[in-house]
């Protein structure tokens, strides 16, 4: 009886080892074809190519909380960040480019040349709006960071110093 039990146990063990080898071999054959693609977010700005073609505004990347927006047609710019440049950019090709901040903070990497003023999205010092930090550079490679209050317009580049060099806006960071 013990001999029969040992024979069955040895046969079962050998069978399991054989099946494991076949399954392992099949698993290695399928390999990369069965794997899902990597889901790494690169933070590229969605629709950037169309915005560049249509509006001459280069949006590079961001966290999705500062979005490209239509500029208001009147004087009421509350709720939008307005960037002004001497270049013919924006949906109206008049040098005005606008953004909205969705939430309490956000960041956007972009490239808008010849910027001379940036207006935040608030109305007054006590009202709602976002503080901004703008990163700019000149053609000579001189970088600067400008703090922009949550309301009003801040002159940058030739807007701040008419004898200075034009500046390219590289990044906007918004906080509440």
From TrEMBL:
Signal peptide positions (record): 1-24
Domain of life: Bacteria
UniProt keyword terms in alphabetical order: Signal
Protein name, entry field: Secreted protein
Organism for this UniProt entry: Amycolatopsis balhimycina DSM 5908
């Amino acid at each position: 009886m013990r001999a029969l039990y040992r024979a069955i146990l040895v046969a079962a063990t050998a069978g399991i080892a054989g099946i494991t080898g076949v399954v392992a071999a099949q698993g290695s054959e399928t390999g990369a074809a069965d794997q899902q693609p990597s889901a790494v977010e690169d933070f590229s700005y969605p629709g950037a190519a169309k915005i560049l073609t249509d509006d001459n505004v280069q949006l590079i990347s961001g966290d999705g909380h500062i979005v490209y927006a239509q500029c208001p047609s009147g004087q009421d710019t509350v709720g939008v960040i307005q960037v002004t440049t001497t270049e013919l950019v924006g949906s109206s090709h008049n040098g005005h480019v606008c953004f909205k901040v969705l939430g309490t903070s956000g960041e956007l990497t972009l490239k808008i040349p010849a910027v001379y003023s940036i207006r935040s999205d608030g109305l007054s010092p006590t009202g709602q709006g976002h503080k901004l930090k703008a990163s700019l550079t000149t053609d000579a490679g001189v970088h600067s960071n400008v703090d922009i209050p949550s309301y009003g317009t801040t002159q940058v580049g030739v807007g701040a110093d008419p004898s200075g060099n034009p500046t390219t806006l590289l990044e906007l960071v918004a906080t509440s």
